[in-house]
Automatic annotation (TrEMBL):
Residues 194-294 form the Galactosyltransferase N-terminal domain. GO terms for molecular function: UDP-galactose:glucosylceramide beta-1,4-galactosyltransferase activity. Its EC number is 2.4.1.-. Pfam families: Glyco_transf_7C, Glyco_transf_7N. Signal peptide: none annotated. GO terms for biological process: carbohydrate metabolic process. It comes from Patiria miniata (Bat star). Keywords: Glycoprotein, Glycosyltransferase, Membrane, Signal-anchor, Transferase, Transmembrane, Transmembrane helix. Its main location: membrane. It comes from the Eukaryota. This is Beta-1,4-galactosyltransferase. Residues 299-375 form the Galactosyltransferase C-terminal domain. InterPro entries: Galactosyl_T, Galactosyl_T_C, Galactosyl_T_N, Nucleotide-diphossugar_trans.
Length: 427
């Protein structure tokens, strides 16, 4: 789909029904008054009616609530008030600026080919999900350039600690990527900058993608994910960087606020076109799973081995999702009020739909993920999550990017990613 207009998808409404009706032979419609119907016909009609209404009700309810049946009715009504029109809206045209040359490198070619024309992509990679160290992953990615790269990264961190960059004002970090250019290197056909920023040299990338990973104490997972993700993004010929947003306090984990922080902080490095919000324990199987910015907002995952290669419910919007910069700004980012496990992704789905933006739901094996064995407990469940979900409508204008407060504790460049450590507090 790269670079091509996105087809408009319309829901089957009355028109389709009448088309279907037209294709019926007239005799099928020449049913007389009720009294003339045979018991068999009445039975068939009543059964069909019950099946149709039940199916419709289930579909509607499932779309609206997704998770918890006990709140079905309230949610169904809330949801219908806000976002029913979204069902009939065509896709908004995605008209993003092309990636600009912000890092060092000689462009000798035009735009990089769209995904479908890239030849060395693997339909299904063999994934190594066994424990590995960051050191091993760095060796795999950089080969004999590793020592040189680590040296440049050290220089990058010294540069970040320079007095001119030591201020609490975010704006002082603007264009941070450009300031790292003197510490760049060439790795194969890529330009590399400390902090794991990559840009193809032989062609102009179509998209600039920031990968945002909400994170705390998952040292076991990160090298396994990066071992697969970095080479895959390079094969897709994207300009990209990986931002690990590390919650550094003892409050319950807050995935959505960390994603807000990742969005804002990554934009201080460069004006990314789009963002992939990526759980650290999900590894994509196929190089054809497009991490470029077309068709967003997008549920990148069509199934994972955890759920038998399915998604848990129709409106699931967790794990790995893609959104453009404009999408995220439009919905005022992500809710800051979800502390602990669950619910925040369900609210993000609702925010997007409430703004009449269509969500692309990927399908098939191209979008399967493997989940790395946990070796940890999930964050404690957020007991308020269902109540919060019910009130999303009254909150989304003032809960998100426009009210977030956080202390940026540290930005550290690593060879394969940039770490942003933050202390986030309840507002
Ligand atoms: N996460 C984290 N540390 C935590 C809890 C969550 O890094 O203590 C991040 C991590 O990226 C993880 C995501 O949030 O993949 C979702 O959390 P988790 O995997 O616990 O959710 P589950 O898969 O159990 O729904
Ligand atoms: C939670 C979501 C979670 C999903 C799948 C739902 O009940 O609200 O946050 O992603 O389950 O685990
Ligand atoms: Mn997980």
């Amino acid at each position: 789909m790269d670079g091509r207009p996105i087809p408009l998808v319309w829901h089957a409404g009355p028109e389709l029904t009448s088309t279907a009706r037209r294709s019926q032979s007239p005799s099928a419609w020449s049913v007389g008054p009720l009294g003339h119907w045979s018991p068999k016909t009445i039975f068939t009609v009543v059964t069909a009616f019950v099946v149709a209404t039940t199916t419709f009700a289930f579909y509607f309810v499932n779309d609206s609530v997704a998770v918890d049946f006990s709140t079905t009715v309230v949610w169904a009504f809330n949801y219908r008030n806000v976002s029913a029109p979204a069902l009939d809206k065509p896709l908004a045209a995605i008209n993003l600026p092309r990636a600009k040359t912000t890092t060092s490198g000689n462009d000798t070619g035009g735009y990089c080919p769209p995904l479908k024309n890239i030849s060395n992509l693997n339909k299904s990679n063999v994934l190594h999900l066994e424990e590995t160290s960051m050191d091993t992953t760095e060796s795999l990615v950089f080969g004999d350039m590793k020592d040189k790269i680590l040296h440049l990264v050290e220089g990058g961190n010294r540069h970040l600690r320079a007095p001119s960059l030591q201020t609490t004002s975010t704006s002082s970090y603007d264009g941070l990527l450009d300031s790292l250019i003197p510490l760049g290197a060439t790795v194969g056909n890529y330009s590399y900058l400390p902090g794991g920023h990559w840009r193809p040299r032989h062609c102009t990338p179509r998209w600039k993608v920031a990968i945002i990973i909400p994170y705390r104490h998952r040292e076991y997972h990160l090298p396994i994910l990066l071992r697969h993700l970095v080479p895959m993004l390079k094969r897709q010929l994207l300009q990209f960087a990986i931002y690990v947003v590390n919650q550094e306090n003892d409050l319950p984990f807050n995935r959505a606020t960390l994603m807000n922080v990742g969005f804002l902080e990554s934009l201080n490095f460069s004006k990314w076109d789009c963002f992939v919000l990526h759980d650290v324990d999900h590894v994509p199987l196929s190089d054809l799973n497009n991490y470029g910015c077309t068709n967003m907002p997008k549920r990148m995952l069509s199934g994972s081995d955890r759920w038998n290669n399915k998604i848990p419910y129709r409106t699931f919007f967790g794990a790995v999702t893609g959104m453009t910069r404009e999408n995220i700004r439009t919905i005022n980012g992500f809710p800051n009020v979800y502390w602990g496990w669950g619910g925040e992704d369900d609210e993000i789905w609702r925010r997007v739909r409430a703004h009449h933006i269509r969500i692309i739901k990927t399908k098939g094996p191209t979008h399967f993920y493997k989940v790395i064995a946990h070796h940890h407990d999930s964050a404690p469940k957020n007991k308020d999550r269902k109540k919060l979900l019910r009130t999303f409508k009254s909150r989304f204008n003032h809960d998100g990017l426009n009210n977030i407060k956080y202390a940026r504790l540290r930005i550290e460049l690593h060879a394969l990613y940039t770490n942003i450590s933050v202390d986030i507090q309840k507002l």
